[in-house]
Known about the structure:
This protein is of the alpha+beta class. 53% of the residues lie in helices and 12% in strands.
Amino acid sequence: MFQAFTKKLFLVFIFSVSSALIAEDYQPGKHYQILSEPIATRDPKKIEVIEFFWFGCGHCYSLENQLNSWEKKLLEDVDFWRSPITWNEMAKTHAKLFYAAEFFKNPAIIRETFLSIHANQRMMTSDKELQPFFASFGIAEDQYQSLFNSFAMQNKIRRADTFGLKYEIRGVPAFIVNGKYRVSASRQVGTSELLDVVDYLINLERK
């Protein structure tokens, strides 16, 4: 029994050391980029993490479950929020779906939008697709239309435009950590490893 316990303890130690070595291998310019100028965060008392994403992005869809699990484990010193990209009219409509989820306080809209696009092959840009989609959440057509065309929504889209330009987002998924670092998928960093790099940078900011 003692030998089994010792073996288990040794394996935990090896895993911990290996994880530390992997983390120490993350290098600026290779696994993440240092922004040329630090950008002020919305809450200077916390470590800010922003995810830039698009509902039509296959990698964003693949990351979604991992991201949800990761978010639930975040400590109170991390301020995590999301910003949809708005590069074209389709992306702007998809961004409105994200903001609708916030407005109606229904995160299931986010999950179902991803599924509608990637599992059910619906582009989610026409009223023919959007009307039954929102109806499934008990939201009438005049409700979402009013929201989509509101001044408040226009402001959110303009802000998303500004964020994308300010942080020089050219591909998604991408993360900005504490207004200092940008993490995006590359040859060195696969989609499944993005959050490991983000965690590394969060810990770096805690020091």
